[in-house]
Specification:
The structure is a homodimer. By secondary structure, chain A is of the alpha+beta class. Chain A has 11 helices and 14 strands. In chain A, strands 1, 2, 3, 4, 5, 6, 7 and 8 form an 8-stranded mixed sheet that branches. In chain A, helix 2 packs parallel to helix 3, helix 5 packs parallel to helix 6 and helix 7 packs across helix 9. At the A-B interface, helix 8, helix 9, strand 12 and helix 11 of A face helix 8, helix 9, strand 12 and helix 11 of B.
Chain lengths: ~400, ~400
C-alpha cells in the first residue's frame, strides 16, 4: 500500500457495535484543503450537518468516524453529540474542532453513545500510524464483508504524489451517494476552486454512477483532503491528477457494488443513443434500479423483457422500434424485433460473474454507464434482520 | 356471487401456459359503453395498442384475455396477433372486431402462439355462462395464488344494479396501474363523459394507490363495461354508483396487494400534513416503494429510521423537526425527537398482519394513503425463476 505523506490513521473498538472495530481516525500533520459531498436526502444525520460546516470553510486536519450508529433522527442531542465527537478529537490532537470532519454510519434513530467514543478516542490517537488505514477502513464497515481501500500515484515534475481512499458501502447505495462513506487523502494539492470542480467531475463518474437498491441514506459523505506535502499540482498536470482521482474513486465504487448486500454479480448498464446525457442517465438508472431486472439477473434468467419494461418506464419518450438491446454482446432485441438467442444467452448467464447490458435507445449520441448488482434472497435476509 | 344482467364469461385452457386455464372470455348480450385505462409505460404491449383504439370509440361487447404471454416487444407480428385475437373472437360471437377488447399478461418478448388461441376460442364461446366469471378470473392469473373477484350492488329507483370485477395482480404493481388486468362489468349505465370521470376518480383511489415493487408493466389494462340493462343511473344517483364502483375497485386493489408475490403482510402508508395532495402522494409512494422499509417489515424489524430515510428522499422539502411518525398507533418519532417505544412496537409487529404507518410531515392539511406489502425472500425467489 502507498500512503500519502503526512497522513496517519487508526481503527479501534469503542463498543458501539457488539463486536469488531467501530471507530476510525485519520489525521494529517499539516492543514489540508478539504472538499466534500453529502447526501441530498432532506433528512440529514447530525454528523453530516456538522461536517458540512467544516467543508464550507474548505480546510481540515482530521476525520473521525464511527460505525454501528448513524446518529440520524436524533434531534438536538444528536447535533450536540456530533459536535462533541469533533471537540474530543480536536482536544486530543491539539487542533481546532472546526478542523475535524465527523461521519457516522449504522442504525438510524438511535442515540450515539458518545461516552464510548470519548473512552476509545485516546486509544485511537495513540495508535495513529501510517499502517493504520486498513484498520480505519475496517472500523467504518457495517454490513460490508470486506474493507474497501485503494490507491494510485501521480508523477508531477519528478515528485510522486499518492492518492489513497477508503470507503464503506453495502446497502442503501444510489446515485447522489449512498450509505456510503468515503475518505480520500492525497499529499498533492490544487487550489480549492479547481479541486472542487475536479472532485465534482470525479463524483459523477464514480459514486454517482452506481446503485444497489435505489435507497439514499441520511449519512452519505465523501471527503477529499489534500495536504500538499508533495507540492502543488501545476495546471498542465491537473488532468493527470484528475485521471488518478477518478481511477481511485471508480475502483472504490466498483468495490462497493461488488460487495453489495447479497450481490452475486456485478452488472454494467450501458445506455447509448440518448438525446442528451440526462436521458441516458435516466434510462440507465431506471434499468439498474429495477427490482424485476435485478431478481431475474440473480436467477440467471435471461428475461430481457423486463429490461424493456423498465426502460419504457424511465420517463424518456422512447420508441420501441428504435431500441436495441445486447446482453454480454449478444443481440436480443433489434429495433423493435426480438432476436432468437436462448442458448447462447443462457450460457453467458451461467458462466459470467459480470453482466453487460447494452441499450441503444436510438435518439441521439449521448451515453452513460451505471454499475449495479443483482438482487438476491440474501439482500432481503440481511435487511430484514438489521436492527433486531 | 351477483352477476350483472346480460354478461357471461368463460375460462379455458389453450396451452399457452404449461398448465391451467389461460384464456378468458367475457361477453355482453348488448353493446356496452366502455372506458379504460392503460399502462403509462412507453413500451406498450400489442394488445394495449389494439384495445386503446377500441376504448377511444367508447363501445365494446366482449373482452378476450390470455395469460402466459404478454405479447409485448413482439414487433409487427405481435400487433397482427393482437388484432387476429380480436377478429377470431368477433367472428365466433357474430360481432365486430372493433367491439372486442384484448388483453395479455405473462412473459415479455415472446411470440403469442395465436394458433393455440384460435383452437381454444370456440370452446370458450361454447362455455360462456353466467357462472363463468370465477374461471375467467383464474384464466388471467400469472403468479397470483388466488383468483380475484368482487361485486357490489346499487339500488337505483327500485331496480338493483350489479357491479362485478375480476382482476389479476401479483408483481410489477405500481401506481399508474401494474401488471394488472382488471375487468369491471355493470348492468347500469351512465353517459360516456360522466362514466369516464367517475372511472378516473375511482382509479385514483384504488389501483393508482397501491404498489408492490415500483415496477410498471407493459400490459396494464383496466376496462369498465356498462351495458345498461338495468337502466341509466339518474344524476342524483351517480354519487351512489361511484361509491359502489370505488368499493369494488378498492377491494380488488386490496386483494392484489394481499396476494402480492411473496408478501406476508399488508401495509398502509398514510401520509398527512402535505402542503398539497401531490406532496402527500409523493411521500407515501416513496416510503411504500422503499426496499429497506419493505425488507425491515418482512423481518418484523421496527427499524423506523428507514422510513425517515425514505421520506427524506422523496423530493419534498421536509423538515425533520416537523415530522411525526406512528406505527400501528404507537408514536415512534415526534417532531424531530425519537420516542422510546421498543417493546410495544416489537409486540405489534409480531402480532399484526396489517401494519399502519402514519406519517405527518407537518406542512399542511393534505393526506394520501398507499397500500403496499413487505418484500420477502419469496419475492426474490419467484422473480428470479420466472421464465426459466
Amino acid at each position: 500500500m502507498r500512503v500519502p505523506k503526512g497522513f496517519k490513521a487508526a481503527g479501534v473498538q469503542s463498543g458501539i457495535k457488539k463486536e469488531g472495530l467501530d471507530l476510525a481516525l485519520i489525521y494529517s500533520e499539516v492543514s489540508c484543503i478539504a472538499v466534500g459531498a453529502f447526501t441530498s436526502n432532506k433528512v440529514k444525520a447530525a454528523p453530516v450537518l456538522y461536517s458540512k460546516k467544516v467543508i464550507n470553510r474548505g480546510k481540515a486536519k482530521a476525520i473521525v468516524a464511527n460505525s454501528g450508529c448513524a446518529n440520524a433522527c436524533t434531534g438536538k442531542e444528536g447535533l450536540a453529540n456530533a459536535k462533541r465527537m469533533a471537540e474530543l478529537t480536536a482536544r486530543l490532537l491539539g487542533i481546532l474542532p472546526q478542523e475535524v470532519l465527523v461521519a457516522s454510519t449504522g442504525v438510524i434513530g438511535e442515540r450515539l453513545p458518545i461516552e464510548k467514543v470519548a473512552q476509545a478516542l485516546p486509544r485511537a490517537v495513540e495508535e495513529l500510524s501510517t499502517d493504520g488505514f486498513l484498520k480505519a477502513a475496517e472500523a467504518i464497515m457495517t454490513t460490508d464483508t470486506v474493507p474497501k481501500i485503494c490507491w494510485d500515484t501521480v508523477k508531477v515534475d519528478g515528485e510522486e504524489g499518492v492518492i489513497l481512499g477508503i470507503a464503506k458501502g453495502a446497502g442503501m447505495i444510489n446515485p447522489n451517494l449512498a450509505t456510503m462513506l468515503c475518505f480520500i487523502l492525497t499529499d498533492l494539492k490544487i487550489p480549492l476552486p479547481e479541486l472542487k470542480q475536479t472532485f465534482k467531475e470525479a463524483l459523477g463518474l464514480s459514486f454517482n454512477a452506481i446503485t444497489v437498491d435505489g435507497e439514499q441514506s441520511t449519512n452519505d459523505s465523501v471527503f477529499l483532503l489534500a495536504n500538499g506535502l508533495k507540492g502543488l499540482v501545476p495546471p498542465h498536470y491537473q488532468a493527470k491528477f484528475k485521471e488518478a482521482l477518478v481511477e481511485v474513486m471508480r475502483e472504490l465504487a466498483f468495490q462497493i457494488v461488488k460487495d453489495a448486500e447479497g450481490a452475486t454479480m456485478v452488472v454494467r448498464v450501458i445506455v447509448g443513443g440518448g438525446k442528451n446525457l440526462k436521458e441516458a442517465k435516466k434510462v440507465a438508472h431506471r434499468v439498474a434500479n429495477s427490482l424485476l431486472v435485478k431478481t431475474a439477473l440473480f436467477g440467471r434468467d435471461p428475461n430481457w423483457g423486463r429490461i424493456m419494461a423498465a426502460l419504457g418506464d424511465s420517463g424518456v419518450p422512447i420508441r420501441e422500434n428504435r431500441v436495441s438491446l445486447k446482453i454480454n454482446g449478444i443481440p436480443v432485441f433489434e429495433k423493435g424485433i426480438p432476436v432468437p438467442y436462448k442458448e447462447k444467452l443462457q450460457r453467458t448467464f451461467l458462466e459470467s460473474k459480470e453482466i453487460y447490458i447494452e441499450i441503444d435507445i436510438g435518439r441521439g449520441n449521448s451515453h452513460f454507464e451505471v454499475l449495479t448488482c443483482d438482487l438476491s434472497c440474501d439482500y432481503v435476509k440481511i435487511n430484514s434482520q438489521y436492527t433486531t
